[in-house]
Amino acid sequence: MESMGKKKPRPRRSFTSEFKAEIVELCRRGDRSVGQIAKDFDLTETAVRDWVKQAEVERANETG
Question: Are the CB atoms for 46 and 39 separated by under 8 Å?
Fold first, then answer.
C-alpha cells in the first residue's frame, strides 16, 4: 500500500533558455504571481524563482 500524502517524484524536465526567459519576463511584468505562473505552465515555484534569480544575476553582471 502506498503511503498517504507522498507524491510520486515528477520526472526531470529540461527547458530552453528562450522558454526560461519568457517565464522570467512574465514574472517581471507583475500581472500574475510567481505561483500562478508556475501553475499555469505546470512548473514548480522553486524552479521559476530560481530562473528569476539567475536572470537578475546575469543582468547585474552585464551592467557590471
Answer: no
Q: What b/e readout covers 1-32, taking b as 16+ CB neighbours within 10 angstroms? A: eeeeeeeeeeeeeeeeeeebeebbebbeeeee
Three cell numbers at 36? Answer: 500562478
Closest CA to 52 of 23, 32, 31: 23
Distance of alpha carbon 13 from alpha carbon 55, whole angstroms:
19
Q: Which residues contact 51 (CB under 8 A, 6 or more apart)?
A: 20, 23, 24
Element (H, E) at 21: helix 17-29
Per-residue pLDDT of 21-41, as tens digits, reads 999 999 999 999 999 999 999
> Which residues neighbour 53 within 8 Å (Cβ) at sequence distance 6 or greater?
none
